[in-house]
Structures are given as structure tokens and as C-alpha cells.
Design goal:
With about 170 residues, this protein is mainly α. The protein has a single domain, classed as Ferritin, core subunit, four-helix bundle (Ferritin), CATH 1.20.1260.10. The chain is about 65% helix and about 0% strand. Helix 2 runs antiparallel to helix 4. The longest helix is centred in the last third of the chain and has 29 residues, at about 140-165. About 35% of the residues are buried.
Length: about 170
Amino acid sequence: MGLKADLPYPSLEGITNDCRALRVVSPAYAGREGELTATLQYVYQSILLGEKGYGDLSRLLLDIAVTEMHHIELLGSLITRLGAPPVFTACPPYPVGFYSASCVNYAKSPEAMLSADIRGERAAIECYESMLCALCNERVCAVISRIIEDEKVHLRALERAWEELCS
């Protein structure tokens, strides 16, 4: 289950303490616009849309959420290998600025939800691509590059859903 690119995920073997890489990737884990926000937003939307009779769209968003959950697990493991505990904050290892579900977009209409999701996926791709420019660790870059491929799949699926909803 999940909506992802048809590529294997790189191994985290050999990734060790790297404070610079840790600072670069941490916001994607539990930052305001990170994977935790995306997961919670897609689950919220899936539940609400399922109850409103949008079964196909609800399932699509839940499938995306499952992949975003995998990204949380992957980034959390990466953060641990880079030298910090996987605390839900944008700035591990410091236990400050804990994640807040107020970051989730709580739109109620399908149009507003998909619009927010498309913007979010575009922003995620842009953020991850910026990370690649700031990273020197090739193994960490491989992980980020693979996540980008999933985000591109999500964006295409959401754009198709938008077209179907608007037609």
C-alpha cells in the first residue's frame, strides 16, 4: 500500500554522525511543512472526504499518507544515524520547538484540500531539491533524491485528481 515511485529506497548503511547534514534534513522530518504535517493532513482529509462520499479521493489521499509515513520513518532513522534522537521537532537534538498539529491545513472542501496538497507537494519538492544543494554527504543525498521521486508521483496524482474534480 502507498503511492510511491517504482524504485528501491537506498540503504542507510554507512551513514554516521554528521551535524551539518542533520541540520539540513531535520526540518523535513517534523518541521512546519515536513513529512509529519503532510501525513496528518492527508489522513485528516481522507477521513473527512470518505465521510462526504468521495471514496476514490479519500483512498488516494490515504495511499499518499502511507508513503509520507514511510518518509517519516526513513528520515527519523536517518536523523538517528546522523547523531540525534528522532524527536518531533524541526531542530533535533534540542528538545525545543516541538511539533504542533496546528501546522496542518484543516480545509473542508475537496477543492481547497487538493489546492493545499498540490502547493504542499510542490513546496516539498523544492525544499528537498534545496537540501541536495546544501548537502555534501552522498549517502544522505541518495535518500533525499529517492524521497523526491515519491513526491513527484504524489504531485502528478494530485494534479490528476484536481482535473477530475474540476471537470
